[in-house]
Amino acid sequence: MRKQLETIIPGGTRRIFHFASDVLTHNPTGTDPTPEQWAKIADVIQEKNHIPFFDVAYQGFASGSLDEDATSVRLFAERGMEFFVAQSYSKNLGLYAERIGAINVVCSSADAATRVRSQLKRICSAYVLESTGSWGEDCGKCRLVFHSEANWHVLIRWPNKAQQSDNMTNKWHVYITKDGRISLAGLSTAKCEYLADAIINSYHSALLYWETPIEL
Q1: What local confidence, expressed as pLDDT, does residue 116 receive?
Q2: Quick check: 104 and 84 in contact, CB under 8 A?
Q3: For residues 176 and 146, is the Cβ–Cβ distance under 8 A?
Q4: pLDDT at 64
Q5: How distant, in Å, are the alpha carbons of 54, 58, 69 from that of 18?
Q6: Is the full-model pTM beyond 0.90?
Q7: Per the omega criterion (within 30 degrees of 0), is the bond before 28 cis?
Q8: Contact (CB, 8 A) for 169 and 176
Q9: pLDDT of 216
Q10: Which reaction does it catalyse (predicted)?
Q11: What is the DSSP letter of 43?
């Protein structure tokens, strides 16, 4: 990677990194630079005037500390370099359906920051003004308000994942998304059997509902 930064990639190029501190939380594969290696990477990027873009999707999962996992990014900030940091809170906060995240840009001057802020506002407006999870709930409420008589039962002929998810949450206090996704990073060995019981119970809780004939 260092050789590519030095000789192959043109100067002034944006470069994407998955980051952490001693252990890199990359997905699905990657390398694990040490703090010393990060310093050498920063040397090359600074010399070649590259603009790094850090993809921060798993902060806290590498060392268990949010602060320690920011070591590599903080190194670039301390050197006064310009870079982007895209943060997602889907994994470390379990907010999969709420589109929660942030884009942070470290600029070389107040004037540059003002111009970048202006452009980011234009780009992100389409994203921050809607939430996919809330959108689904709102559609259900609108149907009740307008007393829709349309028959949508054909859309629920497949297994009712939402009913299973509700059972997992309300009865077993296992918090997953409506479509059944779960963060295994938060699962300890001691809780594996409990989770298995919750999944089995939730599966059977919706089984009778699935087998009920649907009127079209």
Answers
A1: 94
A2: yes
A3: no
A4: 81
A5: 6, 9, 11
A6: no
A7: yes
A8: yes
A9: 37
A10: L-aspartate + 2-oxoglutarate = oxaloacetate + L-glutamate
A11: H
